[in-house]
Amino acid sequence: MSADISGWVEIQDQNDHWQGIMQIDHLVQRSHRMFSHLFGDKDNDDLDVIVGRRGIPVPHSVEVGRSLQSGPDPIHPS
Description:
Number of strands: 2
Number of domains: 1
Strand content: 5-15%
Strand order of the largest sheet: 1-2
Helix content: 10-25%
Largest sheet: 2 strands, antiparallel
Number of helices: 2
Order of helices and strands: EEHH
Distance between the termini: 21 Å
């Protein structure tokens, strides 16, 4: 079973505001293996994953906020 991977690359400007500069959805393929390497398996809290399950950062950019409102609920936000 594959898993969609979506998200943003954000930067913090000189005024400490976050800006979404690149949406990664079109850069990563739908892949269960990649999802597992990044976030761990759906039913397993693997400590060797790259980004883990840290939740959506606060504060975050307006772009991330819009994606959260209009997209599906995140499974493993990080």
